[in-house]
Design brief:
The chain is α+β, with helices and mostly antiparallel strands. It has four helices and 13 strands.
């Protein structure tokens, strides 16, 4: 199998993490099979490239002080402000012993339900846990979406093809993908406009809600008051 190469140097106690980061070095720790916990540092860009290729499911060959160690990326931390890698942990593996780790799912093909019925693809799980020898570890597991034809169709763990020597830990009946009917837009009920106080409704318009039946508009009522005053004179 192909390893992703990465070089590192042993980190001294005097090397403070913040000073390393300023120099574009990333502090890290190596531990695991037959390896003492060893602090190290590696070049930031080199680590980023290795991470992009390997992720957390492909073996990295860590060259540390001239000794090459097969490792898996166990944990990686990013600075919340700069989004740069701030720390990394590598786990040394024994190539003769099985390991258990998470492997991402990679979708292939198109769901007929999504294409023809505008269904919504729901991803329940995007990773599966596998057990195998390090040399058999897949970078990802392909999932064919072609079987999702009707609303409610599902893909379970049992339908995922895995390479020889690889065992999926999750229950075979666990649903990992499904398709749902798209949500219908709620009907918008128009709200009748209520005239402002003192406003005259348009000719033929119904009186505003709450107005007394047969009540005269404000302008007509004012005219009747004026006529009554003139009659008194």
């Amino acid at each position: 199998m192909d390893f992703v190469p990465l070089s590192a140097t042993v980190r001294q106690k005097a090397d403070k993490p913040w000073n390393l980061r300023k120099a574009k070095q990333v502090p890290g720790v190596l531990y695991g099979n037959n390896v003492q916990n060893t602090p190290f540092q590696c070049e930031e860009n080199a680590l980023l490239k290795a991470y992009q290729k390997a992720g957390e499911s492909t073996l990295i060959e860590l060259d540390l002080a001239g000794k090459k160690v097969p490792v898996l990326l166990h944990a990686i931390a990013f600075d919340p402000v700069s989004d740069r890698i701030s720390h990394v942990d590598f786990y040394a593996v024994d190539m003769k012993k099985e390991i258990e780790t998470s492997v991402p799912l990679h979708t292939v093909g198109v769901s007929p339900a999504v294409k023809d019925l505008q269904a919504i693809l729901v991803t329940v799980f995007d990773h599966l846990t596998v057990r195998c020898l390090p040399s058999d570890l897949p970078h990802s597991l392909d999932v064919d979406l072609g079987s999702l034809v009707q609303f409610g169709d599902t893909i379970t763990v049992s339908k995922v093809a895995v390479p020889k020597g690889v065992t999926v830990v999750e229950d075979p009946e666990t649903v990992i993908f499904t398709v749902q009917e798209p949500r219908k837009e709620e009907e918008i009920v128009p709200v009748a406009a209520v005239p402002a106080e003192g406003a005259v409704p348009a000719e033929g318009a119904a009186p505003a809600e709450g107005a007394a039946e047969g009540a005269a508009p404000a302008a007509e009522a004012d005219a009747k008051k004026d006529d009554a005053k003139k009659g008194k004179k």
